[in-house]
Write a structure and sequence with these properties.
The protein is α+β, with helices and mostly antiparallel strands. The chain is built from four helices and six strands. It is globular, with a radius of gyration of 17 Å.
Length: 125
Amino acid sequence: MKLLFFLFAAFIPLMGFQPNLGGISKALSEGDAAALGGYFDQNVELTILDKQDQFDKTQAMQAVKDFFAKNAPKSFNSVHQGAAKGGTGHYIIGDLTAATGNFRVYFYYKAATDKILIQEMRIEK
């Protein structure tokens, strides 16, 4: 029995962290910038429509909050996700339905130990 436990414990690091992306989808669907910001890395490259810049976590949350205030989200549907080239990061592409229309949302994130760190987010019409 001990041998089985040790074999299982040895393979856990090899399985890698499998992030739960439901929190991101929920935050987008509900227009909850604070919840979404909980997934942001310390610095985030953020593009919202025609404005692009590098923000710290707090500034990025405020920019997303402003977007949500003008475009009240109704739902978010993840369309595609996968690993980026080289396997160092991951991406999510999805559709955000808002009161003002539909938007395409792109995320680039890294999985750090036990959480997601969003490093880039784009929202396009």
